[in-house]
Every structure is written in C-alpha cells, then in structure tokens.
Amino acid sequence: MIIKNIINKNILRQSGYLAPQETGAVKLDANENPFPLQEPLKKKLLKEMGGVIFNRYPEAGAPMLREKFARYFGVKKDMVLLGNGSDELIQLLCLTLKGKISGVMVPVPTFSMYKIISINTGNKIMEIPLDKDFDLDFDAMRRKIKPTFPALIFLSYPNSPTGNLFNRGKIEALIKKTPGVVVIDEAYADFSGQSLLPLLKKYKNLIFLKTLSKAGLASMRLGFLIGNKEIVAQLDKVRLPYNINCLSQIAADFFLENRQEFRAQSAKIIKNREILYRKMKKINSITPYPSRANFIFFSCAFDSDRIYEKLAAAGILVKNLNSGLTRNCMRVTVGTRKENEAFLNNLEKAISELGA
Ligand SMILES: Cc1ncc(COP(=O)(O)O)c(C=O)c1O
User: Fold this and answer.
1) Which spans in the chain are helix H?
2) 303 alpha carbon to ligand 1 midpoint, in Å?
3) How is domain 53-257 classified at the CATH fold level?
4) What single string gives the DSSP state of each residue in 117-170?
5) Given CA atoms 315, 318, 324, 327 in this order, what sign does their dihedral have?
6) What atom in ligand 1 is closest to the CA of residue 87?
7) What pLDDT does 239 receive?
8) Where in the chain is CATH 3.40.640.10?
9) Which residue among 113, 291, 292 has the greatest number of ligand 1 atoms within 8 angstroms of its CB, and so is best to mutate?
10) What pTM, to 2 d.p., does this model score?
11) Please, what is the angle between helix 168-177 and helix 138-148, to 10°?
C-alpha cells in the first residue's frame, strides 16, 4: 500500500495543527480562561458527575440542554445545535453546506481552523486580506463573491488573532451580498460586550457560533451553533448522534447554574487585559493593538522567533504568528496578574538581551 496514493493530496501537504502541551509553563498561547474553578464549585460539579451511568450512551442530541441554551441565547429550541467545541460545528458546516454553490471565504489573518477544516472537508478556500486597520476589505470580498459564490463566509467577532470587532455595516452588507451563509463566530463575545445575535431576526442566511471554552470550561468541549431552523435541521442529520458526552452535558448545565461565577471571571480578565495593554504600550520595539477579546495581538520591530524562543526558555508560552501577513507578530492571552507580570518582565528582558 502506498500512503500517498490513498490520502487526499491536500491533507498530505499539511503539517497538522500544532497545540503545544507544556506542563509547568505560563500558558498564554491558547486563549483559555486562566482561573481554575474554585474548590467548592469543583466539588459540586464532580459530585454531579459521580451520578453518570458509565455503561450507557449519553442522551443523543442533548434535547434538554438544547432547550436550556436556546432560552439562554433568547432563541427557539430548533435554532440551536450543540457541538464538541465550536471546532466540531465548523466542521459540520463545511461538510453540509456543499450544494450547487460551495467553498469557503475568510478574511485573513483569522482563526486558523477555518482554513484547516475547509481543506480537510474538500472545500476550496478563498482568503481575503483585512485592510490596514484589520477591518474587512468589503470591496475585495464583494469582488470575489461574484465569480466564486462561496457557500460559507466565516467571520470571527472579535477576530482572532487581531482582537478587533469588524465594522457592523460591512458585515451586514456581506450578509446581503452573499448567495451563501455568513457565520459569525462569537467565541470571544464575553470580552467584547457586543453580540450581533439580534441580527438573526433580520437575516435567514446567518449563523452564530458560541463556545464555553473561553469562559472557563475548555476541557469540556462545548460549542453552540445558532441559526435558521431549516439549516439547523440539515446540519443535525450530519451531526454524530452522541457528540456531547455525559460529563460535558453535566458541565453545560453547571455553567448555566453558575453563570454569575463565570461572568465575574470574564470581568476580571477584561480588567487584566486593559492593564496588560497599557504596560505593553510602554515597551520599546513592540506595538500592541487594542483588543476586545481575552488576548492581545502585537507586532515586533524585529524577528519575533527570537523573542518567542527566549520567552519559551523562560517558561512563558505565547502564540508566535511569524509568517505571511502576520510576519513578526505574536498573540498573548490575558492571564492572571501574576502571569501577565511574568510575561511582561521576560518580554522586556528578551528585548534588551537581543539589543532590539
Ligand atoms: C475564533 C475561534 N473560534 C472557535 C474556537 C474554538 O473553540 P472551541 O474550543 O469551542 O472548539 C477558537 C479557539 O481558539 C477561536 O479562536
């Protein structure tokens, strides 16, 4: 058997998604919530998980949760789907929305999984660079919609890695212009205080993605898709029956019961973000950009690989984005105050050692 004869060439060509799992590191590379669950709450959750019947399948499609989260998002039950993280829902969209028109359009730079999943599901991907303010280049996108007719346009709102919110007028113009669906990924909406969810009342070709990963339950892999019930019904046929395991279903309920706690943590992260941004602005040779998410995007006036290596050697893990449009750029997740201080101190030290 010759592997290259049986594997799709677009998959063979890829190096695969890299998710470093460093232990003991100050982990500021994956946009997680830095605060662990408080002990009494953790005990409560584990007690509930103790009641799981391990030899039985979980409830298929999690209908009760669908209803509860529909209420939480202020929509009808048949407008919601749960996923094994929003990554799974991106995959579900890419697998299902392939009719007479197909293909995926994304502004770049953006969340890398849109491209990876598009390619892995046999979709053509069109990447349109953002403008100099990291906003959508509406004219360039409009020009490409006409000849290519993409079935999906993914917009991260706020955008990762740049941290900004795209102009709402441009988003609405895209929704009106495209023959396909616009997916607004609100993974970081807890930190922006902005949601475009009310637009669901206005447009039928609109889908939203949400996740509990950034709020503090990344380990439980819980994502949500919200949109037009006719599209949701088709997606539901492609969804694997038991995609949300029992422990995750319990954790989702737990989130709703303790939403104040998670909200308070997000508020703390927003405060820490502003302090971190102000301090980063004072450091020579880097330019941080304002952020509406739980991370800060910054460019370096020199080779960011060298800074990345020095930070990693000191146990500080950030996301190095040094290629293409994000040459010499990095993204740092907002951590606890102590973690942010460790990052700032080591960043300044690395810059001075490099004489930059
Ligand atoms: C824009 C965006 N969407 C989705 C995700 C993935 O979320 P989940 O953990 O729910 O799969 C991420 C993760 O970093 C993200 O940045």
Assistant:
1) 3-6, 9-12, 39-49, 63-73, 85-96, 113-120, 138-148, 168-177, 229-238, 246-257, 259-281, 304-313, 337-354
2) 27
3) Aspartate Aminotransferase; domain 2 (3.40.640)
4) HHHHTT--EEEEE--TTS---HHHHHHHHHHH--SEEEEESS-TTT-PPPPHHH
5) negative
6) 11
7) 96
8) 53-257
9) 113
10) 0.96
11) 10
Instruction: Tell whether the torsion through CA atoms of 311, 315, 319 and 322 is positive or negative.
Output: positive
Is the C-beta atom of 87 inside 6 A of ligand 1?
Answer: yes
Per-residue pLDDT tens over the stretch 171-223: 999 999 999 999 999 999 999 999 999 999 999 999 999 999 999 999 999 99
Q: Among 162, 156, 272, 213, which residue's Cα sits nearest to residue 31?
A: 213
Indicate if ligand 1 lies below 6 Å from the C-beta of 162: no
Residue 90 CA: nearest ligand 1 atom is 4
Q: Report the CATH number of the 3-30+260-354 domain.
A: 3.90.1150.10
Give ranges for CATH 3.90.1150.10 in the chain: 3-30+260-354
Tell me the β-bridge partners of 210: 224
Amino acid letter at 284?
N
CA distance 176 to 205: 9
